[in-house]
TrEMBL record:
GO molecular function, one term: transferase activity
PANTHER family per UniProt: COLANIC BIOSYNTHESIS UDP-GLUCOSE LIPID CARRIER TRANSFERASE, UNDECAPRENYL-PHOSPHATE N-ACETYLGALACTOSAMINYL 1-PHOSPHATE TRANSFERASE-RELATED
Pfam family for this entry, one: Bac_transf
Domain named Bacterial sugar transferase: residues: 143-390
Spans through the membrane: 145-169
Recorded superkingdom: Bacteria
Record's protein name: Sugar transferase
Keyword line: Membrane, Transferase, Transmembrane, Transmembrane helix
Source species taxonomy: Bacteria, Pseudomonadati, Bacteroidota, Cytophagia, Cytophagales
UniProt organism field: Pontibacter silvestris
Keyword Transferase attributed: yes
UniProt similarity note: Belongs to the bacterial sugar transferase family.
Length: 395
């Protein structure tokens, strides 16, 4: 008798391919969003296992797995299907969320079915085993107490300022006083991230037409200026080799048989790719009062509520929007999600709002904080944050 399994992915074609591959062994039910799946689950449907190939930070990702295991208490094994190697830090997060095992999309079919039949027939569900010591961030009790005391005290003391800003926001433009977006924080946890509204009400709809204004994307394109001639894939000589009076030593041959410089090729590909972070200078979507509260970081104050709830900490790595988090969920960059999400952090006080901060520098600072957290470091960041609030740059 075929096992009944659920397959979670927003990609319908991928689910169809999986169903075809296992048509003799599995009865596959596909769901492309969590609401659809949870509604089906509420009807008391029976199934033997769940296969999930969604992005960890997506609505079908680890947050849903936690809900299934911890809130709904399901005992069914959950298998994660990954595109590429899953780093130890992400493996740890999967285990903690309740994933039973991890397989790659180019999988050993026999091995996966053996694991499925074993776990779905056993009363106790085993999780991924890894003998290596995995790095994971655990919020110390002292830090949590500090966060509660500071956030609660600040919310009480700043309540008059909250009322003034709320009035100004409401008077200038139509729409709600507060704005929230879904962000990805510690361990890929997705939560509502609160701010004073500083943009027009239709700001999210306008973003798709403004990708060309992204500072990080422009920085990547600017790196091509160091190459001789126009930034095309046909230019052979790069600046370094021309200055040395020699031909490029590392050459590649493209599909048309043309010789190109490897350095130029890599830089051109980087400029063509989409940046993981989005930051727009002089963003036309921002209102006048919005510009003021952004430059003074007053718009960030409602995040004290997030800290009080436990979604964030006072100090940590900035929680990312879903569209940014989806681009950095593999390799060494996954480590940034092990550290706590914070209102302020290392990269904000290092080069806060400056145009010369590259995407690589920002990622590196996030990783540095995740790997080298200490109370001393937190105090230093907090002290540097105060003068940073009065800088004149547009952040």
């Amino acid at each position: 008798m075929r096992k009944k399994v659920v397959y979670l992915t927003p990609d319908a074609q991928e689910a169809a391919n999986f169903k075809q591959e296992f048509e003799n062994e599995l009865d596959v039910q596909h769901f492309g969003n969590p609401t659809q799946f949870l509604s089906w689950l509420a009807e008391g449907k029976q199934y033997d296992a769940i296969f999930n190939s969604a992005n960890p930070s997506s609505p079908l990702g680890l947050n849903l797995v936690r809900t299934l295991k911890k809130d709904l208490g399901i005992k069914t094994p959950i298998f994660w299907l990954a595109n590429a190697f899953v780093p130890p830090s992400l493996q740890q997060l999967c285990m903690e969320a309740g994933v039973s095992d991890i397989f790659y999309k180019k999988r050993d079919k026999k091995k996966m079915l053996t694991r499925l039949y074993y776990l779905s027939g056993a009363g106790e569900i085993n999780t991924v085993q890894n003998d290596r010591k995995l790095y994971s961030y655990k919020l110390p009790l002292g830090k949590r107490v500090f966060d509660i005391v500071v956030s609660l005290g600040a919310l009480i003391c700043l309540s008059p300022l909250f009322l003034v800003i709320a009035l100004l926001v409401k008077l200038e433009s139509k729409g709600p006083i507060f704005y929230y977006s879904y962000r990805v924080g510690t361990g890929y946890k997705i939560f509502k991230f609160w701010k004073f509204r500083s943009m027009r009400q239709d700001a999210d709809k306008l973003l798709a037409n403004m990708k060309g204004m992204n500072q990080y994307q422009q920085a990547a394109a600017a790196s091509l200026k160091g190459l001789v001639g126009a930034p095309s894939m046909d230019t052979v000589a790069c600046t370094a080799c021309v200055e040395a009076g020699i031909e490029c030593q590392n050459k590649l041959i493209d599909a048309k048989g043309k010789t190109i410089c490897e350095k130029q090729y890599l830089q051109a590909k980087k400029a063509e790719g989409e940046s993981a972070f989005i930051k727009i200078a002089n963003d036309p979507r921002i209102t006048r009062i919005g510009m003021f509260i952004r430059n003074t970081s007053i718009d960030e104050l409602p995040q004290l509520y997030n800290v009080l709830r436990g979604d964030m900490s006072i100090i940590g790595n900035r929680p990312l929007p879903l569209y940014e988090a989806e681009k950095i969920t593999t390799d060494q960059f996954a480590a940034r999600f092990i550290a706590p999400a914070g209102i302020t952090g290392l990269w904000q006080v290092s080069k806060r709002g400056k145009g010369d901060m590259s995407e690589e520098e920002r990622k590196a600072l996030d990783i540095e904080y995740a790997a080298n957290y200490s109370l001393k470091k937190d105090v230093q960041i907090l002290l540097k944050t105060i003068p940073a609030l009065f800088q004149k740059e547009n952040v």
